Amino acid sequence: MKFSTQTISCPHCGHHQHIDVDGTCGDQDYYDDCRICCNPIHLRLHLDEARHKIELYIDSGDEQIY
């Protein structure tokens, strides 16, 4: 569970893009801009130590809290 490249779809425009996933830093929560539409993509990375897997969750990041 170190480095890997994943293909994701932008939740805004649907464009496929490759991202590098670094599993050496533990759980992560960050934003990256889409290379096509420039909207923010919310990425959450979870290391599942029991299954030796990296779980990647992607959403639009535009959920608003009132």
TrEMBL record:
It holds the Pfam family Zn_ribbon_21. InterPro entries: UCP037225, zinc_ribbon_bacterial. This is CPXCG motif-containing cysteine-rich protein.
